[in-house]
């Protein structure tokens, strides 16, 4: 079995790896992503708070790969990277957990 390519900060979780291995075409696309692109998908999946959301994100990851996307759509980006400081919005919303004012 071929080793699955990892991200720059995050490692591929078992559930995402299993889903990728079930879809050889998407696995090939995954292997062709940059480490940073893989990292963004992994962080996005792991950021889900509910198991149902996580499952939907894994399904959507496979769909986005099939559509040719190299990063998750509508994702602000991984806040765990040490090579890049989170932007003001990322820090407020993702790091500090602040909500929008209604």
Count of beta strands: 0
Question: Could you estimate the helical fraction of the residues in percent?
Answer: 40-55%
Strand content: under 5%
- Beginning-to-end CA distance, first to last residue: 51 Å
Structural class: mainly alpha
Indicate the overall shape. globular
Q: What is the mean predicted local confidence, pLDDT?
A: 88
Please describe the biggest sheet, giving its number of strands, its sense, and whether it closes into a barrel.
none
Radius of gyration, in angstroms, nearest whole number = 14 Å
Q: State the low-pLDDT regions, or none.
A: none
Order of helices and strands: HHHHH
Protein name: YdeI/OmpD-associated family protein
Organism: Alteraurantiacibacter buctensis
What does this structure look like?
The structure is a single chain. The chain has a domain at 14-76. It is 53% helix and 0% strand. It is built from 5 helices and no strands. The protein is globular, with a radius of gyration of 14 Å. The termini are far apart. 19% of the residues are buried. It comes from Alteraurantiacibacter buctensis. It holds the Pfam family OmdA. This is YdeI/OmpD-associated family protein.
How is this fold's topology laid out?
Elements: H1 14-22, H2 24-32, H3 35-46, H4 51-66, H5 88-95
Helix pairs in contact: 2-4, 3-4
Organism: Alteraurantiacibacter buctensis
Protein name: YdeI/OmpD-associated family protein
Pfam families: OmdA (PF13376)
